[in-house]
Amino acid sequence: MMKKTGVLLSVMVMTYALSACSGGSAGNGGSSGNGGDETTPATTVQTEDGQTNADGSEELVPEPGAKLIIWEAKEQQAFLEEMGKQFTAKYNVPVEFQEVGGGDQRNRLTTDGPAGIGADVLAIAHDQLVEAVAAGLFLPNDFYAEVTKKNFLPSAVEAVTIDGVLYGYPRNMETYLLYYNKSIVKPEDLASWDSIKAFSKQFNEPKNNKFGFMFLANDLYFVNSFVNGYGGYIFGQNGTDPTDIGINKPEFVEGMKFYQSLHDILPIKATDATADVKTNLFQTGKLAINMDGIWQLGNFTSEKLGFEVGAATLPPMPNGKSPLPFAGVKSYFVSSFSQYPNAAKLFIQMLTTEEALSKEFEMTGIIPARNGMEDDPAINKNDVAKTFLEQFKTAQTMPGIIEMRAVWTPVTAALEPIWNGADVQKTMDKAAADLKIAIEQQGK
Fold this sequence. Notes:
By secondary structure, this protein is an alpha+beta fold. It is built from 18 helices and 16 strands. The strands form five sheets. Strands 6, 9, 15 and 16 form a four-stranded mixed β-sheet that branches.
């Protein structure tokens, strides 16, 4: 976008000059969006897909007769309907919420999209993006690309970028940390894995289902943090190269040996440490330190549990390096079948402003993946939420390649034997061989 310089003229002259030099549109690659949240200056000039403001910036204009459908889980309904009302009041575009869970949206769009009854705006996790893009389901995040890159965590932006093309509009990240019962556990007990082990050994009463520390020992999603702390990886090139399988390499094996050592302080079957069991023990005061996810933020409160709940980031591994917990990135996307892509992009932009994300945190407990949200008053007064923001800094986005779907079965099959004392190297060698076969079969 060319910018005029010189003496400040009247609004009429400025409007004419901008109209003469303006040639941008929503489909021009997107770097023309302004660097902050959208505002609406009084003086604007209409362009092909948008309007040029008096300061030379551009913003989108909804298509004539636009109306939007958004798919999301029920937990988000109240927030999205409230934001829909605001959007309708500002742009005269109706917004309809339809309850469709994140796990169902991609598959449903493949049929409902071509039929003209699908959503315009969707909200799914990043690990579904590769398949969605391959199927041509989403439009790139073009107009607001630079705004997104500026305002959101780099790891979140990277997670919704495929082959250099940004598709998603990040909303929040999901990872895990250590919740703890402040009436039982002192901060120094959480300073290292050695201190956690020492605390647990004196606290444990397995016969009475009383444990110092617990995690989902039969779930790679949680186990992987230990592996990453030793430099291990599932696939090479930051999770993008399925020909480089790393699950039986020395670093991965060392991480699995550490995982195996935790059986000393959690002397139960790995399969018995279920989410329901763990949650119940923590809620009833029989579990002191609970490695769990951000989705428990609204459940693990002092008001609900009757004791003060604390949170701590995962302590360094014995080698001094930080564990890198898996992270999922939940983002908004615009359907490629939408008849109103401008309106859809505008609505998402409204949903991802600081003000909207602050409201969403208050209404749903979702912690935004937007830069600077640690200064938000609602988040700043919530110590657990602030700790999650710290944990996000070392979280590693889960590989989003299709081959990741083949990983879970062979690795999960290896966890229980290793937990029970099996030779780690031999067990992971078999898992790697099984994974290679599964990937080959997946490609047929």
